[in-house]
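MODEL INPUT / OUTPUT PAIR
PAIR INDEX: 1
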Amino acid sequence: NAVAGHLDAELRKRSLAPKATGERTIRIDAITTYYRMRSGFARMAVGVFAGKDGIECEVRLVDVATGETTGTFKVSAFNVLAVGSEDDVARMLAAEIAKALEARK
């Protein structure tokens, strides 16, 4: 999915990604709790008056070895401008997840 690709890039940029596949000790599960995406037509026709695009997630950190949840937090990303796309919201959400993980270090 789009968020996973952006999240991988964000984690690497912040030196939070494992160096090798075998070094992975946690799995990041993001459960969507809110999602709203305007259609391209709505963005073009009425712009910001169509409302904002956004996504909210509950993120769970799961220990790969035991399967136990080791932490949870919530993140959200919203695009209130008439420009942008689903990919922009996915990129913003990935950045928010990476920021929250960085703060937990």
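PAIR INDEX: 2
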Amino acid sequence: MATNRDIKNTLYEQVSRIAKASASPKRLELLGLLCQAPKTVEVLSQEASISVKLASSHLQELKAARLVASERSGKNMIYHLAS
């Protein structure tokens, strides 16, 4: 059974991940773009004016913070805001 301290530590770790993930202006821009609709990494990179590699890296950080999720659609990964 989790103690009160364990619950607090888990909560603070998640808040820290969210703060780190949202500390980048480009990551915030990607989140804004995903507010409009789910998109592929290629579309996101084009709309944010960054390389696909950089967009993918930012999306992985956002995914680690559980702010975005992805689903495979054929050869493409479609990113959307996490529930």
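PAIR 2 NOTE: The mean pLDDT is 94.
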